Each structure stands twice: as C-alpha cells, then as structure tokens.
Amino acid sequence: MQVYLDNAATTNLRKEVLEKITEIYEKTYANPSSVHSFGRESRALLENARNRVAKNLNILAKDIIFTSGATESNNLAIRGIVNAKGKDKEIICSSIEHSSILNLVKQLELEGYIVKYIRVNENGIIDLEHLKSLINENTGLITVMAVNNEIGSIQPIEKISDMIKGKNIHFHVDAVQMIGKKELKPYELGIDSMSISFHKLYGPKGVGVLYIKDNIEIKKAFYGGEQERNKRPGTENLHSILLADIALDYAINNMEKESKYVKELMDYLVDNIKDLENIKIHGENRIDNILNISIKGKNIQMLLPILDMRGIYVSGGSACMSGSVSGSYVLKNMGLSEDEVMSSIRISLGIHNTKEEIDYLISVIKGI
C-alpha cells in the first residue's frame, strides 16, 4: 500500500481541476495583454478568475496580485513594504515563520534593517506579551503566519490585529496552511497583506496570490511590463490561474464537509497513537490536517527511510527545508530537546486519504 501523508508540502490535484486541464490549455492561450480579440478573451477570463478568487477569499479583486506562489508573495510584500517605509522602521517576525519569510528577514538584517523575533510557547503559539514588549514607535511591519506549516499551530491573528490597531503598523499574514480549511476574513481581521499558494489546496503548482490593500505603497521587486497593478511584471500564468480558481472555488464551497472528513481521520489517528509510550504529540490548538510527533529512540534519518520503504510518505518538517540535517528550527524554538527534534515527523492529511490508509499507518507506527 502507498499512503501519501505529506499534504502540507503539496497536494494532489482534485478531479474537478484535472478534468479541465486539456480544455483550458487547448482553448485559452492568447496573451492577456494583447489587444486583439483573442487576447481580450484571455483578459476577460483572467479578470473573471480574479473576481471569483477575490470573492472566495473575502477580499476585493483590486487587492489581488497573482504570483508564482507564497514564497514570491511573501518576498514581494515584505521587501516591498520595508523598502517603501525605509530602514528607520523595524520588522517584527515570529521565530517559527516559514523559511521564505525567516530567510528574507535575515537578509534584511544584513542590509541594515532591525528585526525582532517573537518567542513562542511549548505549543508553538506566539507569546503575545512578548510581542507587545517588542512594539514601539519605530515598528513598521509585523509578520505572523496564520497556521504553522510544521506543527499546525493556529496563531492568534485577531488578537495581534487588536494590539496594533491605529498604530500604522503593516500586518502581513502567510495564510498558506489555513485557506480552504478555516474561514479567514482579512478585512475584518485587519490584515494588510496575505499570501497563499494554490498547490496546498488541490490546485496547480506555480501560482499563488498576494492580497495587499490597493492603497498601500510597495516598491517593486523587479521591473518589466505593467501587469498586476504594475507591481508584478511578466505575462500572467493564465492556465494555472484558471485552474487555481477552480480549485479554490471547490475548496471554499466544500470546506465544511471536507474539513469535517479530515478532522475525523485525524481524531481517529490521534486516538490510536496518543497513549503509545514511544510517541509524543507536539502542540495544541492545531489545524485539523497537521500532526507532528516524535517517536522515541528513532532518529529521523533512519525513520523516514523505514516509513518510505513501507509506502508511507511523510516529512521531517517543512518541505522547503527538506535538505536540512540539523533538525527543525520550529521545534527547537518551541523548546523541545535535541532527541525530540531529531526523532520528529510531520503527518499531514488530505481529502484523498482514507480510513484504511490511516489504519495502515497506525499499524506501522505501532510496529516501529
């Protein structure tokens, strides 16, 4: 049996997307910037997709910039904001952000920006009192992910927004692991910019969204044409955008049903392994599809190949840090021991998983 349990890294396309691939590639290929009628048809399809994506994300179409994914969206937003605000404005970032943010702010530190890091507790939730102590009149940007990609901890986005209300501080949220699983209303939550990737919700790779309020100034990251509000030049990835729109629409309209299904699988898994002597579950207040556990006495470099040989595909943490042999910085910053860090795996479920697959996983874990 082959069991794919790495859905926090990427997902399989849902069948509704697969069914449309050939049609979209065959019929829609003109450049949306071309002025002839075929190009105008492509432009109309692009803007229709933008409008529907905006509706499903609870935002306005004018606030959407299509990108290649969340890594680009995070970079475009954060570098664009800090470059516009200047080096006299400080950056505050959680210590367990995705590598596309942490590595960016580390680079900004080298360029002369002041960056402060928010502590997290043993459950991977940011310390709000510590955040409060970091904020001052020079704070220009706060970036905190909605859901951590390694342990699934849900961050107190609304409380952060309330804390900085009226302070002229830009609030950026990486929402990759939340969209399609829980409702998020950026305007109501005071989120100024937000990143998503469609391949995390059963859509195509290579396409994402940066939501950023239309009246917020950001400096360009690179130069070219005037596409995407003159903020992200280059011909739009129209085929992938149209497929992403389909994936998001199905994810949002089926969110309650699909989230309930995945939660039932996760609850069943947790109930069957939580009392095992060699298992430790990390974090509380988690998103329903992500589970991070340590298996006592099993180093990850030995554990992952064992699971792989038995047809179980999980990860040792973030897919973007899969080449690292030093262990998860997320778990380290939560205060886990070196042994716990080096024996941890991430299990992330999806809508295509079955109870039979979870039973197989449980039997393998019990036999390790």
UniProtKB/TrEMBL annotation:
Its cofactor is pyridoxal 5'-phosphate. It catalyses: (sulfur carrier)-H + L-cysteine = (sulfur carrier)-SH + L-alanine. The keyword NADP does not apply. The keyword Iron applies. Keywords: Aminotransferase, Iron, Iron-sulfur, Metal-binding, Pyridoxal phosphate, Transferase. Residues 3-361 form the Aminotransferase class V domain. It comes from the Bacteria. This is Class V aminotransferase. Belongs to the class-V pyridoxal-phosphate-dependent aminotransferase family. NifS/IscS subfamily. GO terms for molecular function: cysteine desulfurase activity; iron-sulfur cluster binding; metal ion binding; transaminase activity.
